[in-house]
């Protein structure tokens, strides 16, 4: 994504700080998959996968891959003690029922009202929404991890999403390479600016207004 | 091995059930838990113009994606085709019709088909024109929902770890995924399995899919593709 490892880890670490003891958490692909590396060892968290795992563990070690134990992306993982398997209807039932406490996912655009667009770039191939709509609509807390701007330098935080929506008013928190925002009833609230950026730089790179904490 | 219910057969025999233009519902998620030997048999038999119903189109060389990549498929009903670039290319060229359903909605539609429910209500996708257009809306207790219809198929193909002669099935870890649902939603269901045992050998409490849903059991010849991480 053109970002240094350090920045990706910084974003993942900030997201990890939102995860509390006993939570059920679903992670998207990309930077969200780095989040477990930043959790304290003593915390008890169950990672949920849409294909039908509660209690997904770390990636399988080389040579220990089991094709019948994979994450939703098709890559081999492990199971933690207390983990379980279920069918995909049950896995999505957990999401719709609100049992997933946090989902951490990537985005193409997020609006100041927390609208999320993360599945179609107009004019490009349509990959399909997968489980993004269920997770965005029904997880208790939706955290977006994304670059602040796209490759052309356009802000991905916008007043209104121009890309097709995944779900309306669903995002609670945005963590970018520059800053952290919370979506509130009065609008976006900037809570943190990452080094080496300044508040002015964040303003210049953000295509909507926001409040400062 | 006894065959008291005449369900145990071979891939070769069950291939007679598949024809050009037919509809097949398949188990599996990202290729994991899709029946490799039946898919290989379908490729070799040369059936074409298929309609496929299942979670996703796998990868070009893994799972059901092999049929798509070989141009045997005219339509898929799925939640995702992103891991199979050939599927995306065929769709763009107009050579593959794709009907997308959100993943949880898709599997629930399959479950509904499998348990005799014609449709159900959900608010998933209400904010997406892509999902909600042309779907009936139902207001229940003041809230609006989409009416999502059941999916079933003349033939379902699934993958399981173990079957007994009656077709009672148990699955292997995350390879369970959509298989128990797809197994219920076929008019005819074929289970490709790693191991076949006599009735009575599976503990009744461990059976996930009761054999009433399974018509044929075929032994697998194992996975004949390289996994994406290999």
From TrEMBL, chain A:
Pfam families: CoA_trans. Transmembrane segments: none annotated. Keywords: Transferase. It comes from the Bacteria. InterPro entries: 3-oxoacid_CoA-transf_B (IPR012791), CoA_trans_fam_I (IPR004165), NagB/RpiA_transferase-like (IPR037171). Belongs to the 3-oxoacid CoA-transferase subunit B family. This is 3-oxoacid CoA-transferase subunit B.
Automatic annotation (TrEMBL), chain B:
Keywords: Transferase. Signal peptide: none annotated. GO terms for molecular function: transferase activity. It holds the Pfam family CoA_trans. InterPro entries: 3-oxoacid_CoA-transf_A (IPR012792), CoA_trans_fam_I (IPR004165), CoA_transf_BS (IPR004163), NagB/RpiA_transferase-like (IPR037171). The keyword Lipid biosynthesis does not apply. Gene3D superfamilies: Glutaconate Coenzyme A-transferase. Belongs to the 3-oxoacid CoA-transferase subunit A family. This is CoA transferase subunit A.
